[in-house]
Design goal:
6 strands; 148 residues; Beta-Lactamase; six-stranded antiparallel sheet
Length: 148
């Protein structure tokens, strides 16, 4: 097992609480080059979990954050028309959302997402804090330095 699911879930719950968010996810890149769900907030609908369990890099907000190595932000994923938001994200019923890449050094190894039921624009300071939190999460992925 590449990650300690309990640790990821505990850290995700703390991050969601720290950011006064309603939901969150952690994904790490697996040996197959796909993003694999390491943790999701309690209460995430089963049909959404099925869609987000494995995500190709470049697809959806998480895949784009990894591909671009930069945050992907949507004030309201229900009305976003940027093309960054996929139908699976809309199915969550959430609105204000951001996904940041998880970095280990300069390498992107995953994605951290948080979302609110209401519209929300994350500030530059919040984005910087989320990226810092992501760097701390990198240690929960065993063998991150040697993965690939």
């Amino acid at each position: 097992m590449e990650t300690t699911q309990h640790d990821c879930s505990t850290e995700l719950a703390r991050i969601v609480g720290d950011f006064a968010a309603d939901s969150g996810t952690i994904h790490f890149i697996g040996a197959d080059g796909m993003l694999h769900l390491a943790a999701a907030s309690a209460g995430m609908p089963d049909h959404v979990l099925a869609v987000i369990r494995t995500i190709p890099v470049g697809k959806g907000m998480a895949g784009l954050a990894v591909e671009r190595a930069e945050p992907v932000n949507a004030c309201n994923i229900q009305t976003d028309n940027s093309g960054d938001v996929r139908p699976g994200a809309r199915a969550t019923g959430l609105a204000g959302s951001i996904v940041v890449p998880i970095f280990e050094g300069e390498q992107v190894i995953g994605a951290l997402g948080v979302a609110n039921r209401a519209e929300r624009t994350f500030t530059d300071a919040e984005i910087a804090r989320l990226i810092a939190q992501g760097r701390e999460l990198a240690s929960l992925r065993e063998g991150a330095s040697s993965a690939g």
